[in-house]
Write a structure and sequence with these properties.
The complex is a heterodimer of chains A (163) and B (138). Chain A has seven helices and five strands. With 163 residues, chain A is an alpha+beta fold. In chain A, strands 4-3-5 form a three-stranded antiparallel sheet. Chain A is elongated. Chain B is mainly beta. In chain B, β8 and β9 form a beta hairpin. The longest helix of chain B is centred in the middle third of the chain and has 6 residues. Chain B is globular and about 45 Å long. The model of chain B has no long low-confidence stretch (mean pLDDT 95). Classes of the chains: A alpha+beta (163), B mainly beta (138). Chains A and B meet through β1, β2, α5, α6 and α7 of A and β1, β2, β3, β5 and β6 of B.
Chain lengths: 163, 138
C-alpha cells in the first residue's frame, strides 16, 4: 500500500469523525485535520487566534480514531503491507509472435482442437495427435527448436486448474 | 513495509480457453544446450514440484524411464507417475535454471512450474491486471 493511499484512507476515516463530535466546531476540526494529517505530534500553537487552542484541546483525533475504530487484532500469519515496484520492468519478447497469433486465430485453432501443434511465427509447421511425430515433422521442415503446445478444446462453463 | 522489485513483466497469455499465467521457456538437454524444445508452462504455486509432459524428455533424445520416480498427487486424489530428470530451463533474455523435475509417464496437456521453480525466482501476480512479474533470483 503506498503512502498516498494510506493517507487517503486515514483521511476518509477522519472525515467521518465530524459527525461524532459536538456541533459548532466541524469546520475548525476540518482545518485542524488539514495540518494534522502530516504528523501526529504537531505543536498546539498554530499561531492562530486563541480560541483555536481551546478547540484543539478537545479534538485529539488520534484518540477518537483509536476509540471509534479499534485496531483489528493481528493474527499470527497476517502479512505486512507490501509495496510492489517495477521501475525498470522489461516485457518478455520470447515467442511473442506466436502468442499473438494464438490470440488472434481462434477459428484456426478450433480446427486444431485436441491436437499438438508446432508453430513458428505465424506458420503452423506441423500438427497431430502424436507430439513426437509432430516435432519430427517440424524438424524435417527446418524448424531447429520447435515450439509445441496442445490445443485444448474450448468448452463453455468449464474452468481450468493445474492438475 | 516490504518492497519487492521485479525486473520482468509478463502479460497473462491468451489461449482459446482464457488467459493464464504461462511462462514460455526452453527445455534444454543439460549436456547439449543446443538440443532444446520450446513449451508453455503454467505457473502453479500449488504444485510442490514441477511436472512436464514425458514426451518432452524423449524428444531431446533422453530415455524417459529411469530409476528416479516421483508420484504426483492430483486434486482428484489419483496419482501421476513421473521420472525425475536434471534439465535446464532457459528463459531467453532472463536466465537459465537447472532443476530436477518430473516428466510424466502419461500424456498431460499442461506443463506445470511448481514451487521448486518458485524457489529459484521471485514471482509476483497481479491477477486483476492479468500480469505477473519475475526476477530470476530468489
Amino acid at each position: 500500500m503506498d503512502a498516498t493511499l494510506q493517507t487517503e484512507i486515514v483521511d476518509e476515516r477522519k472525515s467521518r469523525l465530524k459527525s461524532l463530535e459536538p456541533t459548532g466546531v466541524g469546520s475548525l476540526g476540518t482545518l485542524y485535520l488539514g495540518a494534522g494529517l502530516s504528523t501526529s505530534s504537531l505543536p498546539w500553537d498554530f499561531r492562530m487566534p486563541g480560541n483555536f487552542s481551546k478547540v484543539q484541546s478537545t479534538f485529539n483525533y488520534d484518540e477518537i480514531i483509536a476509540r471509534e475504530f479499534p485496531p483489528v487484532p493481528a493474527s499470527g500469519d497476517m502479512r505486512r503491507p507490501l509495496i510492489v515496484t517495477h521501475p525498470v520492468a522489461k516485457t518478455s519478447q520470447f515467442r511473442n509472435r506466436e502468442s499473438e497469433w494464438r490470440r488472434t486465430h481462434a477459428e484456426t485453432l478450433k480446427s486444431l482442437e485436441n491436437q499438438w501443434v508446432v508453430l513458428e511465427g505465424d506458420q503452423v509447421m506441423a500438427h497431430g495427435e502424436d507430439p513426437l511425430q509432430v516435432i519430427n515433422e517440424a524438424k524435417v521442415k527446418g524448424v531447429r527448436t520447435p515450439y509445441i503446445f496442445f490445443v485444448e478444446q474450448k468448452t463453455e462453463d468449464v474452468v481450468t486448474i493445474g492438475l | 513495509m516490504i518492497v519487492v522489485n521485479y525486473l520482468h513483466e509478463f502479460n497473462y497469455r491468451a489461449f482459446q480457453d482464457g488467459r493464464f499465467p504461462v511462462l514460455q521457456l526452453q527445455v534444454c538437454d543439460p549436456d547439449n544446450l543446443e538440443n532444446k524444445i520450446d513449451v508453455d508452462a503454467y505457473l502453479d504455486s500449488g504444485a510442490q514440484k514441477s511436472l512436464f509432459n514425458g514426451f518432452l524428455i524423449t524428444s531431446l533424445g533422453i530415455t524417459l524411464i529411469n530409476d528416479k520416480t516421483q508420484r504426483y498427487n492430483t486434486t482428484a486424489g489419483n496419482f501421476i507417475e513421473a521420472y525425475l530428470h536434471h534439465i535446464q530451463l532457459n528463459l531467453p533474455g532472463i536466465g537459465a535454471f537447472n532443476l530436477e523435475i518430473g516428466f510424466s509417464s502419461i500424456s498431460i496437456r499442461r506443463n506445470l512450474l511448481g514451487r521448486d521453480f518458485f524457489n529459484l525466482t521471485q514471482i509476483g501476480f497481479r491477477e486483476n491486471q492479468l500480469k505477473y512479474y519475475l526476477t530470476p533470483t530468489p
